[in-house]
Amino acid sequence: METFENLVRAEFAPKNTYLNTASNALLPARTVTALAEAARIRAEGGSLDQVYADVEACRAAYARLAGVPVERVAAGATVALHTALIAASLPPGAEVLTVEGDFTSVLNPFHTRGDLKVRAVPLERLADSVRQGTALVAVSAAQSADGRIADLPALREAARVHGARTYVDFSQGAGWLPVEADAFDYSVCVSYKWLLGPHGAAFLVVPGDFGDLTPVQAGWTAGEEPWNSCYGPVTELARSARRFDSSPALFSYAGLRASLELLEEIGVDAVRDHDLALAGRFRAGLAALGHEPVPAPGSAIVSVPGLGRLQPELARAGVAVSDRAGHLRASFHLYNTAADVDRLLDALSG
After folding, report:
1. pLDDT 10s digit of each residue in the chain, 350 long?
2. Is the pTM value of this prediction over 0.90?
3. Parallel, antiparallel, or unpaired: how do β-strands 165-169 and 322-324 relate?
4. Which of 19, 39, 43, 112 is 20 to 30 A off residue 28, Cα-Cα?
């Protein structure tokens, strides 16, 4: 097996110091090649059977990453659409417990229902805020704005005690943070961040009994035999989570297959060790400069209050980071190096 360093060097060649995976990941070279090949097949009028097969390969790869049977994984396009599916399953007046300032796609479909009781609490109080009558708890495993990690074991136990369902967004974690999707009723993840994929692909994990979800968005792909039931109403929904699929953005999945293969070759544990070492180096450097990041132990995302205003200046200097609510947010992934961290620290010390 190739070494971590050799695999990464062969796949990534950024033209800047890219520290913004929490917004969008860099695409591996193999992914760019796969996207081009899918486009070539389409342009030449070739059969798309292989591209459809990429969807199923991605579903299986994500199931392995999430630690669940492939039959429990639905393939879609966005977190918001999957959240809307879950929101549609709740009865009027149901209480949904959320986190203050969580990413909008995890929250908004519950609010737009108009007849749900949506309650928001600070992240550190989430588990303690689950109570009798709470129907669902929705939270990101790692907060997009600042990288803080939810205490998922405590949430799981609190939900069990009070009979609440759980919905976890792993979009800012899957790829570096271990995913135990089986510990929660529902979980979701987009492909274009830590999974290194293109936009337009997302996965929803559901319980084996589907967790009272109704496939309200079911189209032709939701049939047990899609190609034999794509005219008129679907008479037999898929006997797996594929009943919750939406028609796939084929090029996205063609590229994502290559990205997920790379992650499996390297291994999430190796990626996590690498990412956290760089995040730790950055935190130590910040302390030496007199800056205090938002406390987020064990996170690959580091957010520094008050420095978001420097994002345009850093971009002009060739350092890609984000400005999130006035905080400078840097995120570290497998293609980053210690030299990247030091370049950002040097820029902040100037």
Report:
1. 578 999 999 999 999 999 999 999 999 999 999 999 999 999 999 999 999 999 999 999 999 999 999 999 999 999 999 999 999 999 999 999 999 999 999 999 999 999 999 999 999 999 999 999 999 999 999 999 999 999 999 999 999 999 999 999 999 999 999 999 999 999 999 999 999 999 999 999 999 999 999 999 999 999 999 999 899 999 999 999 999 999 999 999 999 999 999 999 999 999 999 999 999 999 999 999 999 999 999 999 999 999 999 999 999 999 999 999 899 999 999 999 999 999 999 999 97
2. yes
3. unpaired
4. 43
